[in-house]
């Protein structure tokens, strides 16, 4: 089930609580590593963008959101992450697996189910998070995954995501950028 | 956050107790399963009309039909751009959305839900595409089992002939994404054989009611009526409790926050 992972290249995961941080933080991370590499961003498949554009009044449940996040992540692995690793490049996946797990935990989904859903995704070589004070105003639904989930659940989930990443960092599972 | 979880759990428990109390008054979920060209849609329509004529309130749900996710899948199918895993995850999302938004609410309201394809379509097709059944069962969990599954058994040859008589099989329908065969008819022939093999295995594991889909249409319909009447009343099955609780826990919480309101 797991995807073939190239032995070359370096996969770095970067989890954020605000979409606007994605590209600048990923660039900074690349600069601090090899100096060149690629970025794989949330919703490269545009599933969430298209769904947000439908304006049909129905909203997905947390479980449905996780399945869609997994579909988008598979797309990113296939088209962006694995090809770049094959070329020996450094790739920053922003966000990556922990963001999916964080949302699942916040929504009360079983950890076992989340592990199975994301079984296909290889572990990152190193994991980072952006630890910055959130801006006052929550971004629009298409700004990032946290914003999308916040919009669907009609509450600002940034503090909950931040608390989840704080806990990961305390346990040594990621480092602050 | 703890307070919200507790409230949601209590609410889930209350709803489950309420569902149990309803007992025989709940609606039944009747799934029509089988490969393309097995005639299940014809039988589903006949059955639905008959049920309505008998005075039942009936809801139909079709495979890959949610307003929210169907357009996303359709666009990607048209571009032939999805892998078997993305195909699986997107259909699972569509299924979950319909289960939560259409099927379970209708059952709780006491409606009969007639499903033109259900979970087993995904299991058969995705397993035929080479995905592990174990992973598929996890993706679709918590599983909600129908009360009755009518499986329309047909040979790969008959399925192929019936499809070819009306149209050219579509790219994913013909399994061209996994067979890599240019000719859609030949690809369909090979792919549907795998799908039917998977269905046959599922029909044994999950005790489907097998209907000979090569028998005359009206004979099949009369048999379905008879089998339905024999199994009309039954309590809410214990094996569905996890799915019902999950739904009751998640959706009220989501509704509190605006989902589905």
Written account of the structure:
- The complex is a heterodimer of chains A (177) and B (261).
- Chain A is α/β, with parallel strands linked by helices and 177 residues long.
- Chain A has a single domain (11-171), classed as 3-Layer(aba) Sandwich (Rossmann fold).
- Chain A is built from 7 helices and 5 strands; from the N terminus they run βαβααβααβααβ.
- Chain A starts with 9 loop residues before the first strand and ends with a strand.
- The model of chain A has no long low-confidence stretch (mean pLDDT 93).
- Chain B has a single domain, classed as P-loop containing nucleotide triphosphate hydrolases (Rossmann fold, 3-Layer(aba) Sandwich), CATH 3.40.50.300.
- Chain B has a 5-stranded parallel beta sheet, with helices on both faces.
- In chain B, helix 1 (2-22) packs across helix 11 (241-256), helix 2 crosses helix 10 (217-230) and helix 7 crosses helix 9 (184-205).
Assembly category: heterodimer
- Helix/strand/pairing class of chain B, anyone? alpha/beta
- Uncertain residue ranges of chain B: 253-261
How much strand content do the residues of chain B show?
5-15%
Largest sheet of chain B: 5 strands, parallel
Number of domains of chain B: 1
* Alpha-carbon distance between the two ends of chain A: 32 Å
**How big is the Rg of chain B?**
19 Å
**Would you count the extended β strands of chain A for me?**
5
Kindly state the mean pLDDT of chain A as a whole number?
93
CATH-level-4 superfamily name of chain A: P-loop containing nucleotide triphosphate hydrolases
Q: Give the count of helical stretches of chain A.
A: 7
Summary tags:
A: 177 residues, alpha/beta, Rossmann fold, five-stranded parallel β-sheet, 5 strands, B: 261 residues, 11 helices, globular, disordered C terminus
Give a summary of the structure in a few sentences.
The complex is a heterodimer of chains A (177) and B (261). Chain A is of the alpha/beta class and 177 residues long.
